[in-house]
Amino acid sequence: MAKPMKRANGTGSIVKVMGKRRRKPYEVLVTTGRSDDGKQIRKSLGYFEKYDEAVIALHNYNQNPYDFTAGKITFREVYQKWSAEKFPTISKSNVNAYQAAYKRCTPLFDKPFKDIRPDDLQYMVDTADCNYPTLRKLESLLSQLFKYALPRKYTDMNYAMAVNIKKFKDKNPNQRNRTAFTDDQIAKVKAVDSTDVAKTVLMLIYSGMRIGEFLNLKKADCHLDERYVDVIAAKTVNGIRKVPIADKTLAYWQYFFDKSGSEYLVSMDGRDFSEDRGYTAYKDTYWTPFMETLEFGKRDIHETRHTCSTMLHEAEIYPPKIARILGHTGKTIAENVYTHLDIQELIEAINKI
Q1: Which of 66, 121, 198, 220 is the one with CA 20 to 30 A from 160?
Q2: Sheet holding 13-16, edge to edge
Q3: What does the DSSP assignment read for 155-192?
Q4: 3-state class (DSSP) for residue 114
């Protein structure tokens, strides 16, 4: 064993613990701070059998000091740190989706992140009992948390890479066969368009907007004189687009623009739907009762978008125009490169349905 050398201040120390029977007598101590009265706060890196092993451990620590609390941080705390940085940079609908995915991870909330293993993550997937798109969001959340945790030494490996959701690709417990509204059903909605909810249903049908895009649309993004609205936050890059306003619904858009008392376009009974559970509030308070009143049964709000798509195809609108109106990702080269359609062309297209 080499003769111990005096160490520079602040680089830690190696202490031989007295006791003949101690198998690992060399303790490595490092200074992590000072107390209010100026005394050193020291933490132990561990005990070692040989002095040279202790020297190496102390050297490695000084080369790359790490946070002693990293090994204790929980899944919940990692999520809170990650979401504080992530959420301000993404759309509200994505925030809601990640929050929903996080709630499915309840058994992991208080578990130290460093102790989480692939089996724990796969269990979350196997017991989620949700559709494949929802599983993809859960997989995405786990992946991003591990990518966030790895360089911060909250974990030693990206175990999220081992999660398998492909086996559930053809299983969709929540799948619904979406059906377009018929001409007769649309006529019934038009017959009661004096009500706010009927107006919103028709606006959704004749715009093809996603319900989240619609409820979170701000008045500043509505260009009614030019007959289009700007969707500036969406699920996909293609979702950020200009949506044409059909002539037959322009009066409804103007109605909500004039009556809204907030920055958001759609408000009903003095409230808008911008809060976290805005979609649920709209669905439970207005959509579902309205569908029951018209005896339409249980209709999915997203069927308004499906209806718009169906009518556009039936009107034989050029597919790239349909993709631009609905914010779909192009499936052919022509659709992908045809990205500069003039808004007037889109207005003419939507007026054909």
Answers
A1: 66
A2: 13-16, 26-34, 40-48
A3: -SS-GGGG---GGGTT--TT-----PPPHHHHHHHHHT
A4: helix
Which tokens sit at 148? 């966030």
The rounded distance, in Å, linking the Cα atoms of 58 and 274 is 53
Domain 183-350 has CATH 3.40.50.300: no
Residue type, 250: L
Q: Would you state the structure tokens that stand for residue 295, as one six-digit string?
A: 């005896």
- Residue 264 DSSP SS3: strand
Instruction: Tell me the CA distances in angstroms from 71 to 25, 54, 75, 206, 309, one per residue in order.
Output: 24, 20, 11, 54, 51
Domain boundaries of the chain, sorted by first residue:
13-65, 72-168, 183-350
Asked whether this chain's domains 72-168 and 183-350 adopt the same fold, the reply is no
Torsion of CA 81, 83, 88, 89, to 10 degrees: 110
| Homologous superfamily (CATH) for 72-168 | Tyrosine recombinase, N-terminal domain (1.10.150.130)
Sign of CA dihedral 272, 278, 282, 285: negative
CA distances to 32, 88, 108, 164 from 198, rounded to whole Å, are 64, 34, 44, 43
Span 206-248, pLDDT tens digits:
999 999 899 989 999 999 999 999 998 655 556 688 999 999 9
The residue among 213, 223, 317, 226 whose CA lies nearest residue 273 is 213
Beta-carbon contacts of 274 under 8 Å, excluding residues fewer than 6 positions away, are: 92, 215, 216, 262, 264
282 in Cβ contact with 211 (< 8 Å): yes
Question: 116: burial class by Cβ within 10 Å (0-12, 13-18, 19+)?
Answer: buried
Judge whether 84 and 73 are in contact, CB under 8 Å.
Answer: no
Residue pLDDT, tens place only, 250-292: 999 999 999 998 899 999 988 888 776 788 889 999 999 999 9
Among candidate residues 57, 70, 3, 2, the one with its CA nearest the CA of residue 30: 57
